[in-house]
Design brief:
single chain; 4 helices; elongated
């Protein structure tokens, strides 16, 4: 299945850049399995919450921070 291959590939990329691959998960359920979907979505959400914030988010300056840094250098 293409989706499973893509998820697996994305998990490998995350490992390479130092992000926990557990942030990407896939599960199967039909439209009739509403409770199963809710349980899985809750489980995945809790897993991500326990992993903490994105480690790259804090290591990369925001566009606003870049603008402020450039402004300070020109002053």
């Amino acid at each position: 299945m293409v989706a499973e291959r893509n998820v697996s590939y994305t998990r490998e990329i995350l490992k390479t850049v130092g992000i926990s691959p557990e942030r990407i998960q896939m599960f199967h359920c039909s439209a009739a399995e509403g409770q199963h979907f809710q349980d899985e979505a809750t489980r995945i959400s809790e897993t991500i919450k326990n992993l903490g914030s994105n480690p790259l988010k804090n290591s990369t300056p925001s566009k606003q921070e870049e603008k402020e840094s450039k402004k300070k250098k020109t002053e």
